[in-house]
């Protein structure tokens, strides 16, 4: 648990001329596709053996000031997602004196720092006290919320909750790196790669997908909650859910690639990227770990494969890498993964799953906008049927372990919200070995099965 010490509101630095006037952004179809998805919640753990008063008198003011300086570059984050009466669609609006909610808290058990920042199985709900909420009303929703929690003489964690209809994971990481850069350098300027690009005209939408998606969301939720800004209800987090982290090193991935390649006897070439192999290996393990519950369930729950891809370099013309907002799209295979692996021997399951992931990734060679009008409606239809989407939060390409505020890189980064979305998380290995770190949330009994599979599978395949 954590005790709240202070709740404040941090505005963009007031000496900036930009922060003294309104700033608005229209939402694009890449944003409205996520209009009511639950927020994304991340935790960054940092080792810092400071006593409480030193942390409160020195570190917190430094973090607050650098956050304020950073927000002058990221005004939309201090604003709200809203829908003015004279606007045909929602907008992101900052007006002077808008701010970001910042909670400062203290853990009731400082010794839990190393426990929470570990890789072993930990109760999933134990991370919730360190995550702030977004403010939602009938007139709008806040964009981000921040909580800094002290573990005296051990370290601290920064919890960031982000509205997915405003920014994707790449933009979130760019903001965190910008805040860390300004805190570390004690300068208010940003390098070009961290300076957000706001021109929405680079996202072409001749078919009006932006409002098509908004209307599909409103239709889907009209009987659940009439508030247009209310999020889709999240899954409950049972008390027996645990969270653990697994790492595939670069040699592990190379040998998985060799295993799949050697057992693939078709002329068609597979896309065996590190991401594809990691996703395939984890999917096989999780399906195996949850098989017993699936057999016992009265209503069999299907599982489909879904992940997002960055559109920045795939749209025509391409979009700048520092584009702020959402610029991602879905790749989905609605076939039941259990049926795909049915009757497959354990040693063949990885190859079959890798081929399934590869087929999805080959769609990136085509026009990524093909079929976009049906993308959201198909996903919502699957959710309505109770089909579980096996998806991925985060990416090894984000570089989250590069978010250094001046006290070293994070000891651990967690995507807390995967415990409500049934996704796994991915990040680059924190030791920089070129591997991939994967976060998994399962029932305790299922995690035991998965852990055994993960280790035994590496011995077998690797």
Describe this structure in words.
With 462 residues, the chain is of the alpha+beta class. It folds into two domains: 2-221, Chloramphenicol acetyltransferase-like domain (Chloramphenicol Acetyltransferase), CATH 3.30.559.10; 241-461, Chloramphenicol acetyltransferase-like domain (Chloramphenicol Acetyltransferase, 2-Layer Sandwich), CATH 3.30.559.10. 34% of the residues lie in helices and 22% in strands. It is built from 14 helices and 18 strands. The strands form four sheets. A six-stranded mixed beta sheet has the order 1-6-9-10-3-16, covered by helices on one side. A five-stranded mixed beta sheet has the order 7-11-18-17-15. α6 packs parallel to α12 and α7 crosses α11 (346-361). The longest helix is centred in the N-terminal third of the chain and has 20 residues, at 52-71. It is globular. The model has no long low-confidence stretch (mean pLDDT 93).
């Amino acid at each position: 648990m954590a005790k709240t010490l202070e709740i404040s509101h941090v505005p963009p630095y007031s000496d900036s001329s930009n922060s003294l006037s309104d700033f608005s952004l229209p939402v694009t179809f890449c944003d409205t596709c996520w209009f009511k998805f639950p927020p994304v919640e991340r935790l960054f753990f940092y080792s810092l053996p400071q006593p409480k008063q030193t942390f409160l008198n020195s570190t917190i003011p430094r973090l607050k000031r650098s956050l304020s300086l950073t927000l002058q570059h990221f005004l939309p984050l201090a604003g709200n997602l809203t829908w003015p009466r004279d606007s045909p669609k929602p907008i992101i609006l900052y007006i002077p004196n808008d701010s970001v909610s910042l909670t400062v808290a203290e853990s009731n058990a400082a010794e839990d720092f190393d426990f929470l920042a570990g890789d072993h199985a930990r109760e999933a709900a134990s991370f919730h006290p360190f995550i702030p909420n977004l403010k939602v009303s009938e007139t709008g929703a806040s964009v981000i919320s921040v909580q800094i929690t002290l573990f005296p003489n051990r370290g601290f964690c920064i919890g960031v909750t982000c509205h997915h209809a405003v920014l994707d994971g790449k933009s979130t990481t760019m903001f965190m790196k910008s805040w860390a850069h300004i805190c570390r350098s004690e300068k208010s300027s940003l390098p070009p790669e961290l300076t957000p690009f706001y021109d929405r005209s680079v996202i072409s939408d001749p078919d009006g997908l932006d409002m098509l998606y908004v209307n599909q969301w409103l239709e889907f939720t009209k009987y659940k909650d009439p508030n247009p800004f209310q999020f889709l209800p999240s899954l409950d987090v049972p008390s027996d859910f645990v969270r653990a982290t697994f790492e595939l090193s670069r040699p592990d991935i190379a040998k998985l690639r060799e295993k799949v390649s050697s057992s693939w006897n078709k002329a068609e070439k597979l896309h065996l990227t590190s991401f594809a192999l990691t996703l395939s290996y984890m999917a096989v393990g999780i399906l195996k770990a949850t098989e017993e519950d699936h057999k016992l369930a009265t209503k069999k729950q299907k599982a489909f494969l879904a992940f997002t891809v960055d559109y920045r370099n795939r749209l025509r013309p391409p979009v700048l890498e520092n584009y702020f907002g959402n610029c991602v799209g879905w790749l989905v295979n609605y076939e039941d993964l259990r049926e795909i692996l049915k009757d497959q021997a354990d040693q063949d399951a990885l190859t079959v799953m890798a081929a399934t992931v590869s087929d999805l990734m080959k769609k990136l060679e085509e026009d990524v906008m093909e079929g976009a009008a049906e993308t959201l409606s198909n996903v919502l239809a699957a959710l309505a049927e109770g089909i579980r989407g096996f998806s991925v939060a985060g990416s090894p390409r984000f570089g989250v372990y590069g978010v250094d505020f001046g006290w070293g890189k994070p000891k651990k980064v967690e995507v807390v919200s995967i415990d409500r979305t049934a996704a796994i998380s991915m990040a680059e290995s924190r030791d920089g070995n070129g591997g991939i770190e994967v976060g998994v949330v399962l029932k305790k009994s299922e995690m035991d099965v998965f852990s055994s599979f993960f280790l035994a599978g590496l011995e077998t395949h690797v």
